[in-house]
Amino acid sequence: MNRRLALKQLAMAAGGLALIPSCDFSEEKVLAAYDELQITESQQQLLQKLVDTIIPKTDLKGATELGVHNFVLVMANDCMSAEEQKQFLGGLKGFDDYTKKTSGTRFTKMDNVEAEKTVNAILEDKPTSDDEMATKYFLQTTKKYTIQGYLNSEYVMTELMPFQLVPGPEFNGKKEIVPGEKVNING
Amino acid sequence: MANLNIKSKQENTYGAIVIGSGMSGGFAAKELCDKGVKTLVLERGRSVIHNKDYPTTNMMPWEFEHRGQMPEDIQRENPVVSRCYAFREDAAHFFVKDQEHPYIQEKPFDWIRGYQTGGKSLLWARQVQRWSDHDFEGPARDGFAVDWPIRYKDLAPWYSYVEKFVGVAGFHDGIPQLPDGEFLPGIELTAAEEYFKSVVEQKYPGRNVISGRCAHITGNAEYYAKQGRGICQHRTICQRGCPFGGYFSSNSASLPWAQRTGNLTLKNHAVVHSIIYDDAQQKATGVRVIDANTKEVTEYFAPIIFVNASALNTNLILLNSTSKRFPNGLGNDNGLMGKYVAFHNYRGGVSGEYDGLKEFTTEGKRPTSGYMPRFRNVDKQETKFLRGYAAGIHGSRSKDVNYSGTGADLVKNMMNPSYGPWRVGSHMMGETIPKESNYVALDTDQKDEWGMPQLKVNVDYDQNDLDMIQDYRDQLSEMFDEAGFKNIRTWDDERRPGLDIHEMGGVRMGHDPKTSLLNKHHQLHTCPNVYVTDGACMTSTSTQNPSLTYMVFAARAVDHALKNQG
Ligand SMILES: Cc1cc2nc3c(=O)[nH]c(=O)nc-3n(C[C@H](O)[C@H](O)[C@H](O)COP(=O)(O)OP(=O)(O)OC[C@H]3O[C@@H](n4cnc5c(N)ncnc54)[C@H](O)[C@@H]3O)c2cc1C
């Protein structure tokens, strides 16, 4: 239980850290907050770029702005089995090399358009090697948690798809749908 | 020294002792205190005070670190409790973790427990269907277990009494095998359930679909205000503890009520080790209690003792209460204590979709769902298996969210959900037959941290259960098909016994001291100042959820105990 508390505090600190440009990657420390994952700051930054590629800022807030990249790491660290973590990490750690190999540019160096194209291609591809499998698994899982973290964020659940903690005693089992009315998944 | 002992004996003497502060113990305590009896409630777990100790009750979904999901390491360390659907981030603190209180599964058994003030009454799903004579006459008619020494008419007024206090939402449905009760306004079915009801009731005479009766306050606000409780706000996160007291729990209702009489003493961290039997007086005189923290032993005394530690723990305490007169456990002359344990069979499920009623959806949340009372072998034996099953029935309009793509496309897709088909589903709640071979016993070597022998559990399904699962799957999918539902899927999830959380028996009631442990007033035949009114007393299991009936037993037994106190 203590580990989890430490994790929570560190996760917040790590969120702050990401804003500090790090110059020297040669002696990277692993991020203590995600002790199961043993990932580095640059890997975290890659993930942040990926999360922002999946849900970028549009006229709505983007995923990174809501801290969703931290949520993805918390879930990967705490809620995946060892086997799932191995695949996820394999995909994360090899992701830059993989994209360099397949499209000539490292993911971290890509512009937004290219990044999105690359991610979509991998998600649609049928993996044939272990490498490809781990990469695809990593992307699918990241997408899943990104969506979960985004849709369950305070921003979405109060401003876009309002959720009510206290709905009140009315229940209508047969409400007539008003055509064109916005559907609220939390309503 | 002698004087000191007399003094401490006086200080530790009460008008009655209740073991366990959960659903049944809480109600027994309320009844005793209401009638002016100085009552000591002994609860092994920590204190949980209504509204003070509900740490997650007002948390928003995004405030849960894992959005509700239990982390992998906790699940790995707690395989048993992790199988319970309600063991989630918001209520995990009200469940017993596997390592904390070990027991021995001689056969796989998921024992789901809540050790704290209120027991499992904080966590329950609040379904409160009455039992009927079809249930109480079952063993005699079908020739299993032993005859119940009571009938529905003995309980009917007590059902009314308890329901009024608890607050039960429901409709008067007029179904013989599911008697009507004292109902607050019912909660309506959804359009899909309403439609399914019309198909079933037209094509299958004798089968019904109703709104499940649930322990929620939906009216008569002034009356419940006297209990300090308010109208249910349909939050449907009840397992966190309800700040409104909208659903019934010991914590929000019976215990505070008992407290206000000034007659209640509630001791937490008090692990009851055994009941003290006095050979000279030929009766139970008190209980031996181990302090959960210091392990210090204290004795408390009372002329009336209610054992309400939840079914299997009640067995454990009584089996552990040995004396010269009762070397095999208090009241256990016939050696049947711990035997004839039974439970509910929740293994079967059915799901489907309905493409009609497209113009409707639902609005708001509801704390119950549809319910189909037992329709098999009701008036006579018709199938190759004994007894029958009830079924939960639920239908809600699905919302389709398109998660395809990435980037701006994904955002656009996600933010424009549409209505999908109605999703309909069902789960079974089957009656299992109590058998001598389904039993619990004390392990002679392994003890727990408090020096109590560990409980060995030997409970399993039998062919009757498997046949019933098959029949449920066949019947429900046929009815779904008749209703025009599509993509019908049925399954047997092969869950272990225990996960139904309706374990019953071991200290069954009956007419005859040779074949049962308790008489019709819930007194041990051979130690009548000890009463058992939780699940341990059940002679058979019926298909209806049991907890309302435990509270009814508690109220009725207290009445008897006080009228017959010599
Ligand atoms: C998720 C869930 C859903 C459920 N849904 C329903 C439902 O819809 N309808 C229904 O009828 N039932 C339901 N139940 C079951 C219901 O909660 C139990 O049947 C009911 O709480 C049993 O009441 P009880 O008083 O026997 O035991 P509990 O409520 O479990 O209380 C027993 C108390 O005794 C204490 N105790 C145990 N041993 C000792 C000891 N040695 N010394 C001192 N204290 C001791 C425990 O700590 C506990 O507080 C559900 C349960 C759960 C967990």
UniProtKB/TrEMBL annotation, chain A:
InterPro entries: Gluconate_2DH_su3 (IPR027056). This is Gluconate 2-dehydrogenase subunit 3 family protein. The lineage of its organism: Bacteria, Pseudomonadati, Bacteroidota, Cytophagia, Cytophagales.
From TrEMBL, chain B:
It comes from the Bacteria. Residues 434-554 form the Glucose-methanol-choline oxidoreductase C-terminal domain. GO terms for molecular function: flavin adenine dinucleotide binding; oxidoreductase activity, acting on CH-OH group of donors. Coiled coil: none annotated. Residues 224-322 form the Glucose-methanol-choline oxidoreductase N-terminal domain. Keywords: FAD, Flavoprotein, Oxidoreductase. SUPFAM superfamilies: FAD-linked reductases, C-terminal domain, FAD/NAD(P)-binding domain. Its cofactor is FAD. Belongs to the GMC oxidoreductase family. This is GMC family oxidoreductase. It comes from Echinicola strongylocentroti.
